[in-house]
Amino acid sequence: MTETQTLSIREAINQGLDEALRLDPKVFLLGEDLADPAAGVNAVTRGLATAHGMDRVMNTPISEAAIVGAAVGAAIEGYRPVAEIMIMDFIGIAMDQIVNHAAKLRYMSGGRTSCPLTVRTAVFAGTGSGGTHSQSLEAWFMHVPGLKVVYPSNPADAKGLLLSSIFDPDPVLFMEASRLYGVKGDVPVGDGYRVPIGKAAIARPGTDLSIITYGLATSASLSAAEALAAEGISAEVIDLRTLLPLDIDTVVESVGRTRRAVIAHNATTVAGPGAEIAAQVSAKLFGALDGPVERVGARFTPIPARASEAAVTLNVADILSAARRTLGVVGV
Amino acid sequence: MTSLQDAPPDSTTAESVTKEQLSRLFSSMAREEAVDVRIRNGIKRGEFATVIWPSRGQEAISAAIGLALRPDDRLVTTYRGLHDHVAKGVPLPEIIGEVLGTSTGASRGKGGTMHIADPDHGVMMTTGIVGSGVPVAVGLALAAVKDGVDRVAVVTFGDGATNTGSFHEGVNLAAVWKLPVIFVCQNNLYAEMTPVEETMAIEHVAQRALGLGLPGVTVDGNDPVATYQVIRDAVALARAGGGPTLIEAVTFRFEGHYAGDGGKYIPAEQYAEAKLHDPMVTFPRFLLENGFTAAELDEIRQQAADEVEAAVKVVVAAPPADLEEIRTDVYADGLVVTHD
User: Fold this and answer.
1) Where are the domains of chain B?
2) Which GO terms describe its molecular function (chain A) (predicted)?
3) What is the ipTM score, two decimals?
4) Among A174, B52, B208, B327, which residue carries the largest CB count within 10 Å?
5) Angle at B230 between CA B227 and CA B234, to 5 degrees
6) Which fold has domain A201-327?
7) CATH 3.30.1780.10 fits A4-188, yes or no
8) Nearest to A239 by CA among A137, A302, A153, A332
9) Domain B19-259+290-327 carries which CATH code?
10) Which of B73, B121, B146 should we substitute to test contact with A (largest number of A Cβ atoms within 10 Å)?
């Protein structure tokens, strides 16, 4: 049996970063306020500069384009930089470096350069921080060949996927929900622990309906499954863990069994990740579905401030409504 | 109006430069010019269809960079970078192959003119996004420091790039971290089609250094010797741990923004004045006055033309990238993300 310890997601990511820094001298961290004693608004890097030195955990100016650009330059020289964009909404400033350079350098150089860069970023959805500090922008990046997009929902995945991301040969966008930083769970002990990129997990098995989700929306999806169970409906919850590449095989296998699908995420429903997943599921399982593929996410408005945020973002009731719509088609 | 007269007076001097170095400078310039002219002529004649952003007129700066750098030093350049590639030693079939999108190209035809990378010769990235090479070069310099070697990184860009956030973010970070990177602005007085005085309230790009905390130097970019000396000194400073330098080499772009752009927005008198400072005219004149014979210069030019012609032959005979090739190198390890 694997030895585990109970960690929060914040602690699990911190431990993953610590292990990566110990395992490989080519790993270094850079970003705003990362170093001790401040150690960032998210406190994810606490203690790492003290343990590894300021040349491994590098404080930068507020310069997102330079943070990622410098990381790209170091990555094509063989380093494995882990760049932090403090809050995902700021990533627009670094978008050029991520999308035009990190993602394409391998291709445009015919494989002569490689960009093993990890960009960590925190999603502040659900914190009431308003339109420029609470967006879930993963769909922007799912559109970019050459990138990988990872979004864990629990401490074990957070550590295992982070280590896989840092040691992946391709650039990875690693998303962290700030609302989940304090969530605790069992994490395997030891340097060798990895969760593969591109492999979904069955977070809860079920037979009547598949709820496909990831990241912050996973807990709402599990709550919805719990509520459905009370009504005698068995919902399977798939935690995608990685959005690019998407583990469509696991999704299709599940929906092939349950014949009904709901996709739930915190990104906007319009042109959100659910649109791609719904299209693929519909195309591959057209004759086998017993109801329309449903998708739920944020309303198509900017994120409003404070208390109003809950009115536009995904909640358990949205998932339940979608589940009933797809179940109701066959009169369940 | 900013003009070439605002640059320091012609400072060409053979002082501290050997005949062999002068010969290398001219040889590099001749090859750069030959590549640019040959591709434009090929487009004009209908021999092939492609696009380049001509660097005719800017040869001296690239040659100076090529002479000042070691083979292991790094270079990041831009879409108007073919002369930089030539000067840094990228083989001509790889450059021209990429321009024409064939399998001899540096990335077997998947990059194109704006995206040539040749790590074997230190060219780590070429970008079509104005200003964005600057932070990447900062990262290359950071890697050199982390490697504990005295390698330097040079990034070239136009005057237009110095108005971008990436430029300011990148130069600031390099200044704060004292990294071995040399920022070389090839100020050709036009950002695409807009003259520099419409896009900068200051007279010289080098003045931007004052606000960012690093040395800033303006040099006559049509003078390969003066430009070489300035870059050589900046490289020496960077290698010794003295940090970055911003160099503004003032020059002129004789062709339009892209091959086919007639450059009608360039005033006739400015163009005529610039012609008097064309380095492919003034530098040979200087060499003739300093111990070179006409026969020697003719031979260098002929050899450059022959090399370019030979490369074009190889390139046009090669097939374009096939579908199999086009789908590789998106991810490492052959990962193909697709659902078709």
Assistant:
1) 19-259+290-327
2) magnesium ion binding; oxidoreductase activity
3) 0.95
4) A174
5) 135
6) Rossmann fold (3.40.50)
7) no
8) A153
9) 3.40.50.970
10) B146
